[in-house]
Design brief:
Layout (H helix, E strand, L loop, with lengths): L2 H8 L3 H6 L1 H9 L2 H20 L8 H15 L7 E3 L16 H11 L7 E2 L4 E2 L4 H11 L3 E5 L2 H13 L3 E5 L12 H8 L2 E5 L7 H7 L4 E7 L15 H10 L4 E6 L17 H6 L4 E5 L10 E5 L1 H9 L2 H4 L4 H13 L3 H7 L1 H7 L2 H16 L5 E10 L11 E10 L4 H9 L4 E3 L1 E3 L2 E5 L8 H12 L1
Parallel strand pairs: 1-13, 5-6, 5-7, 7-8, 8-9
Antiparallel strand pairs: 2-3, 4-10, 9-10, 11-12, 12-15, 14-15
Bound molecules: pyridoxal-5'-phosphate (PLP).
The site of pyridoxal-5'-phosphate has 15 residues, from helix 8 and strand 8.
């Protein structure tokens, strides 16, 4: 027997591996199908190496490490944590708002057992899913009524279907926006059955444009937040108060899609922002829709608040069932809204708000810590803490630049794009941004407990 044949015949069989102590342990740790694939793949790759003339270690011990690694990889989750070093707080691709431990505790508490989701414990009969947050929404926004659906796209779609199907919804041409992820106002309106009545021009829409458009067929005046788009220069739009007065004079409800929707006035914290949901309602909007996971800082959801008459009509629409909120989300949303019961609590407890309003001095401390950890051990890079600016993201506060601190890392032996790729594929995965020759790691969106793992990933990527 020649050397090749000898090696081939001493390769363990799949069965031998699985029956060994090592194999038994793997089967305890990982699903059988993945262990099986891993064993087969590793044996097959050894066989190829031998046929190519190599002489690998073909003992069980020699195969064990590769099989274990492969089993782990095959059975790892696809959806996994990522360190967001972009400084973009509401990063849609990275999951938008981060939920606090308190909020998750409420999800765990109510989802790992039965709950009174749709059961009225006082009356001993069927209750309403929407009853759990109605009071909170009323308190926080001042609305007469409110409820939540799957997301804000659904909130807009459902509201339009319920209030304006086969009738006209009047919208300014300056607000026919695309929000990303294929949410386009005209398309959503078409799907809802509302007939789009465009008024004004891209840059200017006057009150008389709306006045002229109102008629028998009008069901609704719609105002849409422009989110990640700005019209500057020679512009004009009609303030909500004026639109509301017009609508109410003619018996036409006014709906506002706020997109992000802000529940606390960020002005006192130095962020020149937009009106809060409460202010928008006070200005006369009859229905307001906004997201649960943008500035609100909660789970993915769409909130619909406003006058009872309209909220009830929307709630009764047959599509409401198709876009209803699930119990995990509802538990997360109730806990998030509860934090808004007082403003200081919201700022402290809701990660999205905390990150947006954080004192730059504190961000600088984290940036310094990251830089210090990276410098120890990694001699192959130029590392410094720099001043930079971060964004809210998610189409929220598009014009706001938040002063921040970041770690700039220029790898010496590696092109920066390769460094960025390694970090992205690392463990934990890190997403950061390239600026010239350097990778910019914004400390705003990095939490304290992520500092050490982040530095570890960076050092591994520099090696
Ligand atoms: C983000 C946004 C939406 C969609 O909200 P989702 O919660 O992502 O479904 C709708 N309208 C506006 C103006 C937005 O900014």
């Amino acid at each position: 027997m020649n050397k090749k044949q000898e090696l081939l015949s001493s390769l363990p069989s799949v069965d031998e591996v699985l029956k060994s102590d090592f194999g038994k342990k793997l089967l305890k740790d990982f699903p059988r199908r993945y262990v099986l694939s891993a064993v087969r793949e590793v044996i097959e790759s050894r066989r190829k190496e031998i046929l190519d003339g190599a002489a690998p270690d073909v003992s069980l011990e020699g195969l064990a490490a590769d099989i274990a690694t492969k089993s782990g990889k095959l059975s790892s989750f696809s959806l996994r944590p990522v360190i967001n070093a972009t400084g973009i707080v509401i990063h849609t691709n990275l999951g938008r708002s981060v939920l606090s431990e308190d909020v998750m505790e409420n999800v765990r508490r109510t989802a790992t057992c039965y709950s009174n989701l749709e059961y009225d414990l006082n009356e001993g009969k069927r209750g309403k899913r929407h009853s759990h947050i109605k009071g909170l929404l009323r308190e926080i926004t001042g609305a007469e009524d409110g409820f939540a659906v799957n997301n804000n796209a659904a909130a807009v779609f459902l509201s339009l279907s319920a209030l304006a199907k086969d009738r006209e919804a009047v919208v300014s041409r300056g607000e026919l926006v695309e929000i990303g992820g294929s949410f386009r106002v005209p398309d959503v309106m078409a799907q809802s059955g509302a007939l789009l009545k465009e008024v004004g021009t891209t840059n200017k829409t006057h009150l008389h444009d709306y006045e002229d458009a109102l008629g028998e067929a009008t069901a609704l005046i719609l105002k849409v937040h422009k989110s990640n788009y700005q019209i500057i220069g020679f512009t004009e739009e009609v303030p909500l108060e004026t639109l509301a007065a017009l609508g109410h004079g003619r018996g036409v409800p006014v709906m506002c899609d706020l997109g992000s929707g802000c529940l606390i006035d960020l002005g006192p914290y130095g962020i020149h922002s937009e009106p809060t949901v409460r202010e928008v309602l006070r200005s006369g909007a009859d229905i307001v829709t906004f997201s649960g996971d943008k500035l609100l800082g909660g789970p993915q959801a769409g909130l619909i608040v406003g006058k009872k008459e309209f909220v009830e009509r929307i709630q009764r629409h047959p599509l409401a069932r198709a876009v209803r909120i699930d119990k995990l989300t509802l538990a997360a949303l109730e806990a998030t809204l509860m934090a808004y019961a007082d403003e200081d609590r919201a700022i402290e407890k809701i990660p999205t708000i905390r990150m947006l309003l954080e004192d730059p001095g504190k961000i600088r401390e984290r940036a310094k810590k990251i830089a210090r950890l990276v410098k120890t051990g990694a001699k192959d890079a130029d590392v410094e803490v720099i001043e930079d600016s971060s964004q809210a993201g998610g189409g929220s506060l598009p014009e706001v630049r938040l002063p921040t601190y970041a770690v700039s890392i220029k790898p010496a032996r590696l092109p920066v794009n390769q460094f960025e790729e390694r970090l992205r594929k690392g463990d934990p995965a890190v997403v950061a941004r390239i600026k010239g020759e350097a990778l910019i790691v914004d400390a705003r969106t990095v939490s304290n407990r992520e500092i050490a793992p982040l530095a570890g990933s960076i050092k591994a990527a520099l090696r």
